[in-house]
Amino acid sequence: MNQDQLSIAVVSGDFDKILAAMVISLGAAAMDTEVKLFFSFWALAALRDPKKTVSGKNFISKMFGVMLPKGKEKLKLSNMNMCGMGPRMIKSIMKKHGVLSLEEMFKQAGDFGIEITICEMSMDLMGIKKEELIDYPNMRFAGAVTFAGDMGESTSQLFI
């Protein structure tokens, strides 16, 4: 077991929950804790690059592509979304208080060496291809067994 390792399973695709995962991750990394994130199911929407398009998808995969938010800027709040006004208000308040944007948090996470594992099964089920994901320096593709191994080496595990 690694004395200073945190593993977080990020399953929700809600802005506030992705934000919580990133704030906790960056705080832990700033304290020299190794951090491993496992993005699965709806959380994968945050990792979709809005500038990238992929061809060759079947009908169901195309439908998921249309229905899922594409990128961090399109994520909804888990509560008080208010037709998109909620996320805009939170982002405005964050900026006013000098809190990094989600985009900036992901960049800093990469600089800190925080590892993101993408659930391959979720990608397959939701029709998401590697080519449509963001560029991130410490990204790997694996399954739940790999993340279970990461959790076994961690002193702390979270599910968001």
UniProtKB/TrEMBL annotation:
Please give the Gene3D superfamilies that the UniProt record associates with this protein.
DsrEFH-like
Matching entries from SUPFAM superfamilies are given as:
DsrEFH-like
Query: Which InterPro entries does the record match to this protein?
Result: DsrE2-like, DsrEFH-like
Q: Mind telling me what this protein is named?
A: NADH dehydrogenase FAD-containing subunit
Which residue spans traverse the membrane?
Answer: none
